[in-house]
Amino acid sequence: MVFLYIRLGTNVSANSIRISSWQHLLVAAIGRAMDDTWRTSVDTRLTGLDTRLTGVEREVHGLKISVDWMKWALTLLATFTLTGFTLLTTLTLNVNTKVDNLSAKLVDEFRVQRAEMADEFRAQRAEMSAQTTAIASAFAATKQQAPQVILLPPPPASGQPDKAH
Question: Minimal CA–CA distance to 3: which of 34, 42, 41?
Fold first, then answer.
C-alpha cells in the first residue's frame, strides 16, 4: 500500500483518491520503486541501529548487574566497617574499665605497702639507733683511761737490811 503526502500533513491511501488508472499505475510504480529503495536503505540503517541497540542493551544490562553487585559490595563494606568500629569501641571501653580497676588496685596496694614500709623503716631506724648507741658506748668505754696501776717492789723480807742507797 502506498501512502501519499497531501497538504495539511494527512496521510491518504492511493485507493481513497480518485485518479485515472494510468495515473494509478504510475503512482504505484513510483511508489514501489521508492518503497524498495527507501525500504532497503531504511532497513540497512535499522539493521545497523538494531545491532547497536542490542549492544547498548547488553551494556546497560551489564551496568545494571555491576551496579547491583556494587550495591551489595558497598553494603557489606559498610556493615563490616560499622561492625569493626563497634567492636573497637567496645574493646576500648573494656580496656579502659580494666585499666581503671587495675590502677585503683595498684593505688590501694601502694598505700598498704607504704604503710608497711613506714612501719618497717621505723623499726629499722630504732634498731640502727640502738646499734649506734651500743657502738658509741663501746668506743667511749675504750677511750676511757685505764686505771693506773703502780707497781711497787715487794716489801723487804724481815731479816735483810735494806739496800737502799
Answer: 34
Specify the pLDDT at position 24: 55
Task: Kindly indicate the confidence band of residue 148, based on its pLDDT and cuts at 50, 70 and 90.
Answer: confident
CA 105-108-113 angle, 5° bins: 120
Distance CA 22, CA 28 (A): 10
Q: Average pLDDT over the chain, rounded to whole?
A: 78
Compute the radius of gyration of the chain from its Cα atoms.
65
DSSP run (H or E) holding 12: strand 11-13
Q: Summarize pLDDT for 93-103 with one digit per residue, the tens.
A: 999 999 999 99
Interval 46-84: pLDDT, tens: 777 778 888 888 888 888 888 888 899 999 999 999 999
- Structural domain includes residue 130: yes
**SS3 (DSSP) at 155:** coil
Domain tally for the chain? 1
Q: Among candidates 140, 119, 117, 121, which has minimal Cα distance to 129? A: 121
Tell me the residue range of the domain where 22 lies: 3-137
- Model pLDDT, residue 63: 87
The one-letter amino acid at 6: I
Mark residue 79 as left, alpha or beta (left: phi above 0; alpha: psi -120 to 50; beta: remaining). alpha
